[in-house]
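Usage example:
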Amino acid sequence: MDDRDIQTRVDIELLVNKFYQQAKYDDQIGHFFTEVIPLDWDHHIPLICDFWETVLLNRIAYQGNPMIKHLELHKKSPLLEKHFDRWLTLWEKAVSAQFVGPKATEAINRAQQIGALMKFKVSQL
Ligand code: HEM
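Running the assembly step on the lines above writes:
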C-alpha cells in the first residue's frame, strides 16, 4: 500500500486505469464492458475520471446521469447483487493498492453508497 492520498487528476487517472485493468478482464463483470457494451476506452476512461474528479475533488467535470445508464445496462443484461459486490471489491482493491487517507476512504464510501442506490433502483424495475 502507498502512503499518499488521492489529490490530483493524475491520481484519479492512476486509480481508474488500475480499476479497469482488472475489471475488463474479470470473469464475473468483464463482459459488461467488453460484450454487453463494447466500450471505447479512449472515451470511457476520461469520462469516468471526470466523474470521480467531480465526486472527490469538487471540480465539476462530469454532467451525466449514471443511474439512467445503469438502468439501461440492466435491461440489456441484468445487474445482480454479485456483480455489484464484485465491482465494489475491485474498486476497493484499486483504491487501497495505491492510496490511503480521507479521499481514499471517501472514494470507497461513495462507491458503496452509489452502488447501493443503483442496486435498489434496478431492483425496482
Ligand atoms: C455491477 C456493477 C457495475 C457495472 C457492471 C458497471 C458497468 C458499466 C458500463 C458497462 C458502463 C457503460 C455504459 C454505457 O456507456 O452505456 C458504465 C458506465 C458508468 N459507470 Fe458503471 N458499472 C457498475 C457500477 C458502477 C458504480 C457503483 C459506479 C459509481 C460509483 C459506476 C459509475 C459509472 C459511470 C459514472 C459511468 C458513465 C455513465 C455515463 O456514460 O455518463 N458504475 N458502467
